Structures are given as C-alpha cells and as structure tokens.
C-alpha cells in the first residue's frame, strides 16, 4: 500500500493563450509511514501535484495509484480516496463554517457516511489530538477562537476522517513560533505513533530539515531532487542556485566539514552534532 | 470549476481594436446596441454580420472565443425563440397540430429575435474581450465627468466599480479554494435533491462571506493608511488619449450604422423595395 506516480503530466487551460504546463513527467513512489517534504519555488507545481493525490485535480496523462485505487480511472471511488488522503490546505482556518467547533469537525466524518457513534468518537479524539480541550471548545463558535486555535480546529476537521495519508500545504504559514512548533510536533507524532504517511509542502527549509526524512525538490513542474535532507543540503551551491535557502544546521555542518571536521553521515539536530563533535574530540562530554 | 468561465474575459493580444481608446469603444458599443434594435430585416442582419466579422478579424480575437460568449444566454435564446414561434399568429399558416399553430411570420420573427440577441452578446463581449476592466472603468468615469457638475459622485462610483471588478478574480479564486477544501472533506455538490444541494452550499457561502468582509476591512485600512481621499482631485496613472485609430474605428462603424438608420427612417417611402425589408 503506497502512492505510485508514473509519468504524471498536467496542463492548465489547454489550447488557450493562458496555457501553462504545471507538471512534467513526474515519477515517484511514496511508501507507507514516510515523512516527505515537497519544496520548490512558487509555481513549481507542488500544489498541483499534491492535489492530484486525493483526486481534487484529475489525472490528465500518466498514472497515479494510491493504496491500490487507480486515480487515473475516471470512475474511481472519490469518497474513499478523500477519506484515505486527508488534505490540509494553506490557511485551513478559512474553510471553517459551522456554528460550533464540534459541528465543523464532524463535517468530514458525516460526509464519509460514518455512524453517529463513530462520528462522536472520531470528533472528540481529533479535537483532543490537536491539543484543544474538548469540553471547553466543543460548543464554541470556531470564529471566537484565536488564529492558532482556528487552524488546529481545521486540522482536526481533516484528522477526524482518520486519513492514512496526510497532505499539508504550508501548515505553519502565518503562525507564531509557538504555534508552528505545536503543529509540527503534532504532525510528527501522527507520523511516528500512528504511522500516518505525511506529505508536507513547505517553504521553511529549517522546518523541513528537522522533520522530513525525505525531500522532493520540484522546479518548473518536474522533480529535480528526491533524496534525504542531509544529502540534499550538502549540495549547498546547487540549492542556492535554485533560490532555496540552506537550513542553519546544514550550513553549520557543511562549514565544519569544509574545515576538516569529520562529521559522520546523517547528523542533523544540535544534539546530534554536539555528540558527534564530542566523540571526535575523544569522548569528553562538554 | 470556475476556470471555464470565459464570458467577457480579456483576451490578451495586441491589435488595432485593443489599442483603441476605451471611451471610443464604449461609445461605439452603445451605438451598436442601439443600432441593433433598428434592424428589422435579414438583409440588415447580413449587413451587420459583415461589420461584426470585420471587427472581430481586426481585433485578432479568435471567432471561437467570441461565439463562446453566447453559451451563457443559450437557454434564454431557445426560450424566446420557442415563445415567438408559438405566440406570433400572423402571416400564412404553415403547420397546425392540436393547439399549436405555426405561422411563417412567427418563424421569421423568432429567427430575427435570436439573431438580435446573439449579435447583442457577441458585440458586447468583443468590447470586454479587447478592453481590460480597468480601462473600462476609467472610460466610464471619464464619460460621466459632466455629471460631477451637478454634484454626482462620479469618482466614487468609478472607484466602487473598479474595486468590485478587481475583487471578482480573487473572490473566484477564494471560492475555488474553499470548494476544494470542502471537497477534500468529502463534501458532495453534485448529487441529492434540491434541498440537499442548497444545503451543500452553506459550507462554501459562510467562509466566503467571512473572507469578503475581512478583505473589505483590510482594503479600507490600507486605503486609510495611505491617506486616500476620494473627493480631492486625483490624476490617473494611465492617461487616456484619442488617436487616429479611434477616428478610423468610429468612421468605419458609422458607415455601417448610418446605413442602418437611413434604411429604418425611410421604411415608409422605400417599402416597395421589398428585399430591403424582408
């Protein structure tokens, strides 16, 4: 069970003066339980690509199989795909509409045709999962909440459908550092503890570097790199050439390596680097 | 879902018509609209076809794009045609079945009505296909200028118009985004009875309403913080200027429409020239 993309192409407004090619021969496979980040410039095709994954954009040419469902078939089970692949758009708080938080979160599960008992359980779990107190929040209007809380309610609305794959389009955009950290911790927890496949579109390379285990770099609708964060950001010059920034920790590691500090492969966080440097120094734990 | 709306969408090419002054085009469009109602014969419509095809050719807009604009009024077209066919009871009886009677005058009248509506929409969409919304509002503001002497808020009106127009694309985009977000949560807009379908739009309308209010407020703040004052005299970034193109364009259209008005005015004395009034 995985996501298999073969020769995916997509053109907006074909045969008109507004014709633009958004995807160009995309080929990749995403296994269950992966944490993948998709990065690239505005207009590189990231959003178009991720919207293919739950059939919001239908396949024009090529093939796309998600957990055994052929999305390139005209008649595939859309409801099933959409409950399987949860999609959190940019600024998801803009989609809130119901009178109370509980009603908003249950919108998805209700559409999926779950029974009322199931819905109640899912909704409560999802709200608690995103770190909100169920009793205080359930009868509040979503419009009374703060920005960060609204976003978490919107996230709960997607999580309540219990997706196996979670697609997030810039989930931390416009949040303060605390809000960012909370969302990312939550996403990481889902990935590690519940085995949810996470596909995250992001412009923040530090956040990508810390969380993702695999990075896909897109440019002009094509995949140009598909590798681990450590390998990708070791190519500092190439990254800068593509107008992407290099994460601070990667810059630091690259600098150390350049000055003949023999860091082992795969060190990313401050703690890991500290440990590696100490080991090189001969074991003293300063 | 809304990307397919092409009615009146600006078609970005560089042509004679695109470069004409928006005010000239606006006046000519009004002349065109009025002129159409003075045409009562198939010969007149043939004459108008020559004009319209030439204008479309010169504008470099593909004929297909102009014809596409009729799609929006197709239902109206068919409806008026059917009404006219059955309710005109003049001329020779062609067909009679149960309570339905079809006369040749009815057929002729329906055909003319359809032609009139079609040409109406094609002509006006040629205006919007070759003129940006911004130019169009500036043109309206400039043409309504005389009204400001009787304290009519022309500039404010133009501002409201241009703001409305400039918000349409972003609102369409916003609607599109909200629809996709709700679809991702399993919302279904295509099945169920009328009641269910209407209810299905609540999750789109409320977020849309909330965001339009937010946008309006933000815009007001932004304008205030840059000291916007509508009443003071403002100059325009793009100055509108008549050129030789406008003279040529106006003369060209006048040739056609003067003929139309003359034929209309002389219909009593020229009635014996039957082909002219067929």
Topology:
The complex is a heterodimer of chains A (286) and B (278).
Chain A: E1 2-12, E2 20-31, E3 35-40, H1 46-52, E4 61-66, E5 69-70, H2 78-84, E6 85-88, H3 101-105, H4 107-111, H5 116-129, H6 134-137, H7 147-159, E7 165-169, H8 177-194, E8 197-201, H9 205-211, E9 214-219, E10 222-227, H10 229-234, H11 236-241, H12 248-258, H13 270-281
Parallel strand pairs in A: 3-8, 3-9, 6-7, 7-8
Antiparallel strand pairs in A: 1-2, 1-4, 4-5, 9-10
Helix pairs in contact in A: 5-7
Chain B: H1 16-19, H2 22-36, H3 42-59, H4 63-68, H5 74-87, E1 93-97, E2 100-103, H6 104-130, H7 133-144, H8 154-184, H9 194-200, H10 202-225, H11 244-265
Antiparallel strand pairs in B: 1-2
Description of the structure:
The complex is a heterodimer of chains A (286) and B (278). In chain A, 40% of the residues lie in helices and 22% in strands. With 286 residues, chain A is of the alpha/beta class. Chain A has a six-stranded mixed sheet with strand order 6-7-8-3-9-10, sandwiched between helices. In chain A, strand 4 and strand 5 form a beta hairpin. Chain B is mainly α and 278 residues long. Chain B folds into two domains: 16-131 and 241-277, no CATH class; 144-225, no CATH class. Chain B has eleven helices and two strands. A two-stranded antiparallel sheet of chain B has the order 1-2. The longest helix of chain B is centred in the middle third of the chain and has 31 residues, at 154-184. In chain B, 20% of the residues are buried. The model of chain B is unreliable at 1-7 (pLDDT under 50). Classes of the chains: A alpha/beta (286), B mainly alpha (278). At the A-B interface, helix 2 and helix 4 of A face helix 8 and helix 10 of B.
């Amino acid at each position: 069970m995985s996501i298999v993309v073969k020769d995916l192409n997509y053109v907006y407004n074909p045969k008109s003066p507004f014709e633009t090619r958004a995807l160009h021969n995309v080929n990749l496979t995403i296994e269950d339980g992966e944490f993948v980040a998709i990065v690239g410039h505005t207009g590189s095709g990231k959003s178009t690509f991720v919207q293919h994954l739950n059939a919001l954009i239908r396949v024009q040419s090529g093939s796309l199989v998600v957990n055994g469902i052929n999305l390139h078939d005209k008649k595939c089970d859309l409801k099933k795909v959409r409950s399987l692949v949860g999609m959190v758009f940019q600024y998801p708080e803009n989609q809130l509409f119901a009178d109370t938080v509980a009603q908003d979160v249950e919108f998805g599960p209700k559409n999926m045709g779950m029974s009322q008992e199931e819905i109640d359980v899912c909704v409560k779990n999802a709200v608690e999962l995103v770190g909100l107190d169920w009793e205080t929040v359930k009868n509040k209007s979503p419009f009374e909440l703060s920005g960060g809380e609204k976003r978490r309610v919107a996230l709960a609305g997607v999580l309540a459908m219990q997706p196996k794959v979670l697609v997030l389009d810039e989930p931390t955009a416009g949040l303060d550092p605390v809000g960012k950290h909370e969302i990312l911790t939550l996403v990481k927890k889902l990935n590690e503890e519940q085995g949810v496949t996470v596909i995250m579109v992001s412009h923040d390379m530090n956040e990508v570097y810390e969380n993702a285990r695999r990075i896909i770099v897109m440019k002009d609708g094509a995949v140009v790199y598909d590798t681990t964060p450590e390998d990708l950001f070791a190519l500092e010059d190439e990254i800068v050439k593509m107008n992407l920034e290099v994460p601070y920790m990667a810059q630091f590691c690259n600098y150390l390596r350049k000055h003949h500090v023999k860091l082992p492969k795969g060190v990313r966080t401050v703690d890991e680097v500290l440990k590696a440097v100490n080991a090189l120094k001969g074991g003293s734990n300063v | 879902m809304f990307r397919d709306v092409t009615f009146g969408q600006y078609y970005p090419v560089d042509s004679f018509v695109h470069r004409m002054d928006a005010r000239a085009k606006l006046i000519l469009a009004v002349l065109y609209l009025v002129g159409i109602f003075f045409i009562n014969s198939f010969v007149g419509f043939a004459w108008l076809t020559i004009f319209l095809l030439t204008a479309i050719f010169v504008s470099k807009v593909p004929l297909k794009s102009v014809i596409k604009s009729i799609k929006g009024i197709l239902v109206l077209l068919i409806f008026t045609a059917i009404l006219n066919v059955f309710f005109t009871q003049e001329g020779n009886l062609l067909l009679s079945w149960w309570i339905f009677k079809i006369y040749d005058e009815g057929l002729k009248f329906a055909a003319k009505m359809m032609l009139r509506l079609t040409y109406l929409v094609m002509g006006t969409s040629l205006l919007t296909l070759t003129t940006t919304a911004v130019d169009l509002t500036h043109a309206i503001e400039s043409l309504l200028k005389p009204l400001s002497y009787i304290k009519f808020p022309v500039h404010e009106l133009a501002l409201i118009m241009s703001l409305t127009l400039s918000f349409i694309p972003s609102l369409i985009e916003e609607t599109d985004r909200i629809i996709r977000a709700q679809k991702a949560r399993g919302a279904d807009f295509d099945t169920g009875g009328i009641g269910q379908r209407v209810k299905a739009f609540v999750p789109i309308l409320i977020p849309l309403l909330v965001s339009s209010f937010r946008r309006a407020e933000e815009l007001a703040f932004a304008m205030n913080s840059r000291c916007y004052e509508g009443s003071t005299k403002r100059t325009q970034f793009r100055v509108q200027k008549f050129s030789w193109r406008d003279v040529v364009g106006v003369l060209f259209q006048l040739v056609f429409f003067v003929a139309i008005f003359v034929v209309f005015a002389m219909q009593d004395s020229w009635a014996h020239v039957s082909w002219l009034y067929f």
